[in-house]
Amino acid sequence: MNKYLVVLRCGDSSLHPQWFSGGQAPNFDLILSYYGKNEDYADIFAKAIHRFKGSKWEGLNDFMLKNAELILQYRYIWLPDDDILTDVQTLNDFFEYVERENFALAQPSLDERSYFGHQTTLQNRDFEFRETNFVELMMPCLSSNALHAIKHSFGMNKSGWGLDFLWPKWVASFGKVGIIDRFSVFHTRPVGSAGSGMGDNSGTSPSFELNQTLAQYGMLGTPIKVIRGKTSDVGKSYASGRLGNPMLFVHAVKGSNPVRRKDIVSFMRLLKEYLPWLHHIKRTTWPMHRAPERRSSR
Q: What is the pTM of this model?
């Protein structure tokens, strides 16, 4: 048994077999939560296969309820989508890093090829990591203590939308929360192409669930914020503070993906993440909590 666990909610086109093509030995166990149609589905890389039809979060909720004691035996648990392309060495290093830096909740950043829904999640090469109030449900990684604290939320709605903002608040006492820029992965399919986590024949929409969930906790309209960043050159940390930190913003601009600086709308989103006093400005374009489907450019 390894000390880390990947629980992958997957179908028949999952990319996870490509993770192992380099031949490295994983420091994690892989369990597949399978929603496909193949009754004889098997996998040489998985320690076990959990079968459940439905959305990602319905499936993971069923898995957590049935395997609570097993999950607590691992130090960190990663819950990625099945269209994430990476490799074993990156995941080995990522797990070791989040434990060493005492993260309660984290995600790898998205590389420059990736489809994305939130510009914040794109890799910023000037940072080792950025502490944020948001970690996307595409691929959250939680410490076992943090996961135990939020496991009740898996059944709150079908899409999971809104949990990206609730979890950082709920697990902050267990450690850091943020995006790990030191490690990036490739999100290979357009956001929403698999139904935004709703599964088949959904009677509602992710946006409705998002607003309903956040309104329930008084967090409707919460903007994404970068609270602190650790730079990749000398490893110095800069906190945003209540008014923002010029040095934090300089690194944010310098290391950001070019798509974040290509037009005034994208640049204003960048400003708002790092300069808290701008949060009161009325948003006249896409909501901060769910950006349009776009692909980053080189």
A: 0.90
